Fold this sequence. Notes:
Distance between the termini: 28 Å
Organism: Catenuloplanes niger
Keywords: Fatty acid metabolism, Lipid degradation, Lipid metabolism, Lyase, Multifunctional enzyme, NAD, Oxidoreductase
Largest sheet: 8 strands, mixed
Domain 3-hydroxyacyl-CoA dehydrogenase C-terminal: 509-586
Protein name: 3-hydroxyacyl-CoA dehydrogenase/enoyl-CoA hydratase/carnithine racemase
Family: Belongs to the 3-hydroxyacyl-CoA dehydrogenase family.
Number of strands: 19
Radius of gyration: 27 Å
Shape: globular
Amino acid sequence: MTEISFPSEVVTKSLLRLVRVPGVDRQVALITLDNGFDHKKPNTFGPGGLASLSEAIDQALAAEPAFIAITGKPYVFCVGADLTGVPLLETHAQALELGRLGHRVFARLKDSTIPTFAFINGAAMGGGLELALHCHYRTLSSGAAALALPEVSLGLVPGWGGTQLLPNLIGPANAATVIIQNPLTQNRMLKPKQAAEMGIADLLLEPADFLERSLAWAAGVVGGSITVERPEVDRDSWDGVLYFAKAMLDKRLHGAVPAANRALELIGVAKGASFAEGTALEDQALADLIFSDELRSGLYAFDLVQRRAKKPVGAPSPVHAKDVTKVGVVGAGLMASQLALLFARRLQVPVVMTDLDQERVDKGVGYVHAEIDKAVGKGRMDAGTAAKVRALVTGSVDRSVFADADLVIEAVFEELSVKKQVWAELEKIVSPEAVLATNTSSLSVTEMAADLEHPERVVGFHFFNPVAVLPLLEIIRGEQTSDAALATAFAVGKQLRKSCVLVKDAPAFVANRVLVRFLSEIQSAIDAGTPLEVADSAIDPLGLPMRPLALLQLVGPAIAYHVTETLHAAFPDRFPLSANLKALADARLPLLVDDEINPAVTALLTVGDTPLSADEVRQKVLDGLAQEIRTLLDEGVVAEAQDVDLCMILGAGWPFHLGGITPYLDRTGTSESVTGRRFLPKGTASLA
């Protein structure tokens, strides 16, 4: 047997207690997973943690209890494998043994003649959820923060039984959603209610007395007074479900995420193979994928999101931050209304919107109230919270309501003169200490503040649409922005539950600048005569969340052209103005109809006679990205390449398997061929 160990492992210990529970005549074995830290450092399993669990199972079986139950420390069940040790595996045999070790330990619960229960009291992800699936029965706390099998997002598959157990519990369609679709959709988590409705848990309980009620329920199951019924899985439609899922994967990812296809194959195996056969194939898939560049990029991206995003590089000390007890929002359009709702919901302070007339104000406040009602209807907000948040948001046509606001953010038309006029008027109203935030996607914060008496209190807040969904917040420091204003911005961003990145005041900042360069290269290829179908599909091998034309339609050609104008003014050689893009903006035609290119769009274009092949378009785009990212790094727009990747992952939804983008540019050799050097040290997000 190959020995493996993770030198940096924080061992999650399995602590056994023998307890008495009314309704059963023998003691109950209760195993609690606990790594000795609070919920901020969740339980994970490395070789040491698996050994501790196996030992606890030995002790539990020896006691011959009425049943064995496993739960976690407060707020956390277990969030899976210890990923810090995975890059340390040196051989395929070691990777195989990691999979087999987890299977051997977990299978003891599945194969036990004594009933086994998982009391999922908190976050359960990856191997943690797979551990629960091996138990005969499961209860789930409605307060569990996150439930998922996120491995595919990292470039892996659920490797400790998840691909075999889950489809046989909840069916292949639901299993494919949890194992493949959710990880590839911004790593979407299941809510406890969803998990229970799917059948992942047998019983959903409130957190206040979760353990006590779980023990009582388990006693009822063992004693025979409670019967657990599970619907039969439809095996006749299994192959059809997988055929459809494969077609969707090919259409969306074009083979760019090997882990997704391996996971789908394993779900297919689960239909008829024995558990031993299926888990052996899991072991093989896990071992193969551990030695892939996609996994290294996935782990790099995971580290960015989990660590770097929580400690923004360059952010001033929070001691400089000003308390925000009231927020003003200039504007009552869609973006302004989204911001008002977000600030009220997260900061729990009064938020007042203004606009040019009462009709617009009423429409903005009405939007906020409607969104609150939707949240209540979907069970995402209780009635009491809804009433409070609704009362916090008001509107007025009189900007004097901003006089006592600590933070005022504008969300007016993206035109420098308009924004400057707003600030000139507001400076006469707000207190000298109020922080003024501009929600701009491309304009200069420095220029916006230039004519003010106190330009040091102006800071940029670049949110991404939809505001409530995308986690990125680019915080822009103008040339005169003070530490106090900046610290307040970061403190507010944290309260808003956004991942903040400090950005120097530069045209279009980071995410939009990279995205516009990406679209500009595609547009240039189209202008040269490349057929729309070829240009649009050329980037398919990267597995981006949407093709270029779908992205352009989402952003809107008019907005894309407007941002390009800003960038063209600063960098005319790299951001040419396209007459075709202007024509699309003016025509206001849908670029796609039923996911197909609109023939009217093709007819509108005036193109050259030097078309490019798909390979040429793709390389042109990659070269442009490498050049632009190197340029903005040399300009000091952000501290490091990691911040560019963080912006692309959290603001543009670019996938973990690319590591954002710079790891991909490095491993394809594009970085060195275009800029003469890599963005990241060798081995940072790749095998070499």
